[in-house]
Design goal:
The chain is mainly alpha-helical. It has helices at 2-17, 27-32, 42-56, 60-73, 78-91, 94-104, 111-122, 126-136, 143-156, 160-173, 178-191, 194-207, 215-224, 228-236, 240-243, 246-259, 269-277, 284-287, 293-303. The protein has a domain at 212-307. The longest helix has 16 residues, at 2-17.
Length: 307
């Protein structure tokens, strides 16, 4: 035990002498990482190269100092910002980065930060983009943009709890924020929360200015709640572009199948065919089950309780 304590103290003294206050569990990742970027700008080239060298040799305190100074002297050099972000990302030291970004306080109109976010997207460095967006959400002027981008990411990845959290932060500031309401409505569909979906649909009916395709939410909620006549009313009043969407056509079709033994499909067929033109591949006789004689016979047997 005494030997172990001495050994630990010895290791600590080495780390202190190297000026390293970070854990080095990520040493292999730092040494082998290939995503650090070189720069062509002569003014930033030396400090950027030094930051990469120190990062890969796990001299982390020195690397941190170099990255900070390099950004101070080259505030618009996107690659240096990306490298500093990569450095903290590999170390899992997200909070330190967020504090630095918040302190630097880039303006919402910053071309540099807009480009950084775009570069992260192009390079498929999505996790790093999320870390940076979280940092920007603490910077005045960036809040709503960052919340919306974060919400969209978590919707796409199926993390609806996180997505709702960010969307609610937007709605606390702007109660009729159109995109946030659409996001919340989409989440309610995924969670089968039909009464909540109706509430968001009603808000969208008032708030929607750019995108008027909220009728689906009324159709879907009313259909699932057994209010078929109401669902049909909303289906028929939808925009032409909304009617060509397969999800919309499916619930419109299902509503008619509940209301009528043998519905007339004249109202749906033109929109279905437009969907086919866009690449939808389900045959007409399958999508509309009562168009063919076989489909009508099956439908008749089903409705009479013989199948």
């Amino acid at each position: 035990m005494k030997f172990r304590i001495i050994y630990i103290l010895y290791l600590c003294s080495i780390l202190i002498s190297l000026g390293c206050r970070y854990p080095i569990a990520k040493q292999d990742e730092l040494e082998s990482d290939t995503l650090f970027l070189e720069v062509t700008n002569a003014k930033a080239s030396d400090c950027n190269a030094e930051g990469i060298r120190l990062s890969k040799s796990v001299q982390l305190d020195q690397a941190e100092s170099v990255w900070d100074k390099c950004i101070q002297t080259n505030p618009n050099e996107v690659s240096v910002h990306l490298n500093r972000l990569r450095f903290y990302f590999l170390l899992d030291e997200f909070e330190i980065l967020k504090e630095k970004v918040a302190k630097e306080g880039p303006s919402r109109s910053s071309v540099t930060y807009t480009t950084i976010l775009k570069e992260l997207e192009i390079r498929l460095r999505n996790e790093e983009k999320i870390v940076l967006l979280d940092a920007l959400s603490r910077v005045k002027g960036w809040e709503l943009y960052a919340y919306e981008e974060l919400a969209n990411y978590y919707i796409q990845t199926g993390n609806f709890v996180y997505a709702e959290g960010y969307l609610n932060q937007i709605l606390e500031v702007v109660p009729f924020h159109e995109n946030a309401l659409y996001g919340m409505a989409d989440i309610q569909v995924q969670k089968n929360n039909w009464y909540s979906l109706l509430d968001y649909a009603k808000s969208l009916e008032i708030a929607a200015k750019k995108n008027k395709e909220f009728h689906f939410y009324f159709v879907k909620a009313n259909y699932e709640l057994g209010r078929y006549e109401e669902a049909l009313k909303w289906a028929e009043s939808a925009t032409a572009s909304e009617k060509t969407q397969i999800g919309f056509l499916e619930v419109w079709r299902d509503t008619l199948l509940v209301l009528k033994d043998f519905p007339k499909w004249d109202g749906l067929l033109p929109y279905y065919r437009k969907a086919v033109e866009k690449g939808y591949a389900v045959p007409e006789s399958v999508f509309f089950p009562t168009l063919s004689k076989e489909g009508k016979d099956i439908r008749k047997a089903s409705r009479s309780g013989r199948s």
